[in-house]
Amino acid sequence: MNSTIELLLSHRSIRKFTDQKIPRELFETLIRAGQSAATSNHVQAYTIIHVVNPENRRKLAELAGGQGYVADCSDFLVFCADMKRSTEAAERAGAEVVLGMTEQLLVASIDTALVAQNVAIAAESEGLGLCYIGGIRNNPAEVSALLRLPDHVYPAFGMCLGYPDQQPEVKPRLPLASVLKEDYYQDEQDATLVAEFDDTMRQYYLERTAGNKDTNWSQQLKPLFTSKLRPHMKDFLKGKGFKMK
């Protein structure tokens, strides 16, 4: 394997950081690397908010579910799916813009994920650690108000960046055969593969927590599809102009 593949396979979420700050030049280079990600029709439908104000960082940490590393990391970013800039540019060019299409929401969300992953890979290549913060969507209206996000822009997720102060193990992934299919969708072996993966994850959690966490992948999914569905997101997105027509 080359060094890039080795880097990708070694990804871990980092939630504890040293006090060392990321040099500004390096920080801006990471963002430029993010901008080099693929983007649908060159729309570049994202805006990245670099949250510097300490009080705002503390507020975001609480809004994201009390995740203290949002306030403690060297730099915190909020990646926003943004259709405002591009639609206004099209209007200035003479287009009669149609807003609120579901495809616009998809394009903006996918573009935002791609730019963020480029930033993540660039950061790890420089010895930095990171953690995605989906908890930004716990209170999207409050986050939007704090960041002064206009219509047609929504906060997709955050990212903590900094120098790692921990070395967690790499978390196992699903077996390749469960996610890679040939020619068409085949799920005959999925139940067996997932059961095997549950055993792997149970052992991982037991070892990581010295026996204090006895669970598996399937058990960990249960809250995601019950109490953590974030039912407020549909009305919030519609209120921000993403009508999903």
UniProtKB/TrEMBL annotation:
Pfam families per UniProt: Nitroreductase (PF00881)
SUPFAM superfamilies in the record: FMN-dependent nitroreductase-like
Gene3D superfamilies xrefs: NADH Oxidase
Keyword entries, A-Z: Flavoprotein, FMN, NADP, Oxidoreductase
Molecular function terms, GO-annotated: oxidoreductase activity
Organism superkingdom: Bacteria
InterPro entries: Flavin_OxRdtase_Frp, Nitroreductase, Nitroreductase-like
Family of this protein: Belongs to the flavin oxidoreductase frp family.
Protein name stated in the entry: Nitroreductase
